[in-house]
From TrEMBL:
Residues 135-187 form the RNA polymerase sigma factor 70 region 4 type domain. GO terms for biological process: DNA-templated transcription initiation. It comes from Caldithrix abyssi. This is Sigma-70 family RNA polymerase sigma factor. It comes from the Bacteria. Belongs to the sigma-70 factor family. ECF subfamily. Residues 33-99 form the RNA polymerase sigma-70 region domain. NCBIfam families: sigma70-ECF (TIGR02937). One of its GO terms (molecular function) is sigma factor activity. CDD domains: Sigma70_r4 (cd06171). Keywords: DNA-binding, Sigma factor, Transcription, Transcription regulation. Gene3D superfamilies: 1.10.1740.10, Winged helix-like DNA-binding domain superfamily/Winged helix DNA-binding domain.
Length: 198
């Protein structure tokens, strides 16, 4: 009897099985989804809040909201696309509320963020240079408008396909490529301006 209640998250070979199990009342099945997406959720929340503690709290809260609504989710669809909307709404509401009460603290520089190349550093000098590049990248991203920053994060950090981005943002698939292209151009211009300062 105990064996039936206690199950490992490795029991599920894909998220659809985990969702179906969760919808049938197997609460433990939700751990599979949390473990699979918690890092992406945290970094997405960090993009909106620019604060590590807030990002952690909001990403966890989003999982709670998603769990409460899991019965209404269509298992044939992509979970993260649906979850992303929940997380984004929570983050936007929180940031708007916080903006009215006090200035959002910038803590992005303290986070270890890899650059687009994903190269690892072997010595302190390389680590410093890599962290410096990452900081410049985040500074440039934060200087972009929300729509530009969001689409770059979804594609280049979250690795979403064009179809997934279209579904997530509720825009035609044909618009994704052009929006992403212009967002990247604006990011490059921001990086060039920041680089000129240094």
């Amino acid at each position: 009897m105990v064996k039936k209640v206690k199950m490992s998250i490795t029991k599920f070979s894909n998220e659809k099985d985990a969702i179906l199990a969760c919808q049938s009342g197997q609460i433990e099945a939700y751990r599979y989804l949390v473990e699979k997406y918690k890092t992406r959720a945290y970094h997405t929340a960090l993009m909106f809040t620019k604060n590590r503690d807030d990002a952690l709290d909001l990403s966890q809260e989003a999982f709670v909201h998603a769990y409460r609504a899991i019965d209404r989710f269509d298992p044939q669809k992509n979970f993260y696309t649906w979850f992303y909307r929940i997380l984004k709404n929570l983050c936007i509401n929180y940031v708007n509320h916080k903006r009215n009460t006090r200035k959002v603290k910038e803590q992005i520089g303290r986070d270890k963020v890899t650059d687009f190349t994903g190269n690892s550093a072997d010595n302190p000098e390389q680590i410093f240079e890599q962290n410096e590049r990452s900081q410049l990248l985040w500074n440039a991203l934060n200087a972009l408008k929300d729509n530009d920053r969001e689409i770059i994060i979804l594609k280049d950090f979250d690795g979403m396909s064009y179809a997934e981005i279209a579904d997530t943002l509720g825009i035609p698939a044909g618009s994704v490529m052009s929006r992403l292209y212009y967002a990247r151009q604006r990011l490059l211009r921001k990086l060039e301006k920041i680089d000129e300062v240094f």
